[in-house]
Amino acid sequence: MRGPAHHPLPRSRCGPAAHDLPPSPRPSLRRSGAVHPGCSTACGSGHLDRARRRSRDAAARRVPEATSRPRVSRRPRRHDSLRALLRGLRALLGRALQSGAIRSLDDSVTAYVPELLRQPAYRGVTLRHLLAMESGIAYTRTNGHMWHDLRSSDARFFYSGNLERSLLGQHREDPPGLRWAYKDSDADLMGWVLARATGHTVARQLEEIWRPMGAEFDASWDLDRRNGHEHTSSGLNATARDFARFGLLYLQGGNRRGETIVPRDWVQASTTLDRSRTEPEVATWWQMQHQHYWWIPMQNWEAEHDFFADGSRGQRIYVHAGSHIVIVQLANDSRQEFPFRKIVHYLVGEPFRYPRSIAGQLLGAARRGADADSVRRLYHALMERAQARPAEFVINEAGMIAVGEELLKQPDKSAVAVAVLELEVERSPASYRAHEALASAYEKIGSKERAAAEYREASKLAPLLAKSASGTGR
Q1: In this structure, are residues 74 and 20 in contact, taking their beta carbons and an 8 Å threshold?
Q2: Would you give the DSSP letter of residue 71?
Q3: Predicted pLDDT at 237
Q4: Of the candidates 68, 412, 73, 94, which has an alpha carbon nearest to the alpha carbon of residue 253?
Q5: From start to end residue, where is composition biased (Basic residues) (predicted)?
Q6: Running DSSP on this structure, what letter comes out for residue 57?
Q7: CA-to-CA distance for 382 and 296, rounded, in angstroms?
């Protein structure tokens, strides 16, 4: 069975500048699994990983190297080659906007890919929606259960031998712009848009960044089939050293040796915390905010000023602007830990402690027998300390709701559960999820009038998303 092919990209012949990473010799691949220094991996769930290694065969489309050497012919890709998840098109989009190939992020996707006009799902979807992962297209992620994963949208798009057909087969779940949901298909469609807008393959466009940024080695990009589309959601293959150079390029505002490679304002928009958004897209202790296909750790960002590219199963490019440090992490089976701030603080000789979860502290107190009033006092004390020392604490909506719902399962903890959810509504009065969770708690303890009031408030805040909008809880 044939799977994706890939575009190799040439390396720079300019040599490293004084502030660049030092060169290293090119080692060979061995059957033992030792790889070219830092070739990275793109993996989904464990079930899909095993299937990929067994079945994925690929051919390569090469572009000329930075010298006048002739084009390299196609070749089969090794099954044991390792791959990386990196949204290289995050930089390409900024360049396309600067050059005028793309007029505006508010353009409809159908303006660049008219084939989508016959698919109602894409009506009203703009490039900004794709960039923000808010297309409203239905999509299922892997969850670690084999049969679910094999039928998921993640698997369908990873294995797709015809991305155009796969994209045209999508259907809509929500109105565009309604909510964030991570989808490989949004990134794959952005690649199709970029190719149409510029008249060049995505690999050829990346070459215009790869060479001037001082890349030391060739790179490649997986295709859905020979002479087909790049898998822009996943298939960029390169070494750790060159991924570090990509991170360094963004650290330097898109500039190298006085040459602007990626527009500075685009880099800034991609790597700066959006303070108007108070909750992360992914609730972890570092609080992941999605921004132009990069991730911003919201927790104590004002002090850290860091950002990172996040690939599947632990592939990361981490950039800490304050200390001028770039870290590349490669992995094949990561638990998605986030050690980078601790590493940076160690390297610069500063102490570091992981923050304490305020929701977790409340849960612990409740389990030790604290009543509702005690939990409220503890919450306000912790919030006061967090305001004074933000590096030491973390709180988010998902954590507070999860603690409230966990306590609600225990009959003797229902009053404490309600108190926790009331505190979250107090903290986030504009959140329909907080009101909805509190309504559900009121309903469970038999307080129907208060439940109805909270359901109405949730519905008013988010008419299309709140469960009460469809009659639930009324």
Answers
A1: no
A2: P
A3: 84
A4: 94
A5: 1-10
A6: -
A7: 24
Angle at which helices 397-408 and 358-367 cross, to 10°: 20
Give pLDDT tens digits for 258-293.
Answer: 999 999 999 999 999 999 999 999 999 999 999 999
383 CB-contact burial (10 Å; exposed 0-12 / middle 13-18 / buried 19+) = middle
- Cβ atoms of 84 and 236 closer than 8 Å: yes
Q: If we measure between CA atoms, which residue out of 375, 334, 231 comes closest to residue 383?
A: 375
User: 305-334, pLDDT tens digit by residue?
Assistant: 999 998 877 789 999 999 999 999 988 776
How far CA 332 is from CA of 41, 104, 316, in Å, comes to 6, 38, 12
User: How many whole angstroms separate alpha carbon 314 and alpha carbon 332?
Assistant: 7
How many residues would you count in the chain? 474
For residue range 5-61, what is the model confidence (pLDDT) as tens digits? 444 444 333 333 333 344 433 322 222 222 233 334 333 334 434 333 333 333 333
- How far apart (Å, rounded) are the C-alpha atoms in residues 438 and 92? 44
Could you tell me the domains of the chain?
A: 1-271 (3.40.710.10), 272-347 (no CATH), 356-470 (1.25.40.10)
Spatial distance between the Cα atoms of 287 and 267, rounded to a whole number of angstroms: 21
Residue 345, classed as helix, strand or coil, is helix
Helix (H) or strand (E) segment spanning residue 221: strand 219-223
Instruction: State the Cα–Cα distance between residues 184 and 232, nearest whole angstrom.
Output: 8
Whether the Cβ atoms of residue 331 and residue 314 lie closer than 8 Å to each other: yes
Please state, in angstroms and rounded to a whole number, the distance separating the CA atoms of residues 421 and 440. Answer: 10
Q: Which pTM value belongs to this model?
A: 0.83
The mean per-residue pLDDT over the stretch 415-440 comes to 97
Spatial CA neighbour of 9 closest among 217, 224, 245, 306:
217
| AA letter at 32 | S
pLDDT > 70: percent of the chain: 80
Half-sphere exposure of 363 (CA within 13 A, CB side): 18
Give the bridge partners for 327, in sequence order.
Answer: 318
Q: How far apart are the C-alpha atoms of 416 and 371, rounded to whole Å?
A: 6
Return all residues near 260 (Cβ < 8 A) that are at least 6 apart.
254
The confidence band for 138, taking pLDDT boundaries of 50, 70 and 90, is very high
Contacts for 290 with CB less than 8 Å, ≥ 6 apart: 132, 133, 180, 182, 281, 282
